[in-house]
Design goal:
Blueprint lengths: L4 H4 L17 E5 L20 H9 L3 E8 L8 E7 L5 E9 L4 H5 L3 E5 L10 E5 L2
Parallel strand pairs: 1-2
Antiparallel strand pairs: 2-4, 3-4, 5-6
């Protein structure tokens, strides 16, 4: 652990909820407890979150936004990301929202990268494929 201190030495911790975080230019990766049943197993689970307020806050961030959710996420225009094999043979569908602020038009020049993963063979490496826009 001591060998990795240089990687996080510049981090600052903020005690409190997400609304106390200053809006700086950054890559914002949000992965809250998922809406509905899959987000219930936490001390502060999905029933405690105001997802509309979280989405509004997230869209106001400066920089790149990557927002993960489960299949019941309906408060942003999420796109399918992948399906995972879960317990008892169940499958869970993961979705993602990506926004790049002022760089959105530049991203469209190169198309969109989506993550595809084989759910039948867990050992198959993940691959990226380009989808034209």
């Amino acid at each position: 652990m001591a060998a990795s201190v240089h990687k996080v030495k510049h981090w600052s911790l903020i005690e409190g909820d997400y609304t106390r975080i200053p809006n700086i230019e950054a890559t914002w990766f949000l992965d809250p407890p998922y809406k509905a049943g899959s987000g219930q197993g936490y001390n502060h689970g999905s029933s405690d979150l105001d997802y509309e307020a979280l989405a509004k806050w997230a869209l106001e961030r400066n920089g790149q936004l990557i927002f993960c959710e489960g299949e019941f996420g309906d408060y942003l225009p999420f796109r399918p990301l992948l399906q995972l094999a879960g317990a008892a043979g169940k499958r869970s569908r993961e979705v993602v929202y990506y926004g790049a602020g002022e760089h959105e038009c530049q991203r469209s020049l190169f198309g969109e990268l989506t993550f595809q993963r084989s759910i039948d063979q867990q050992t198959t490496p993940s691959t990226f494929s380009k989808i034209s826009t």
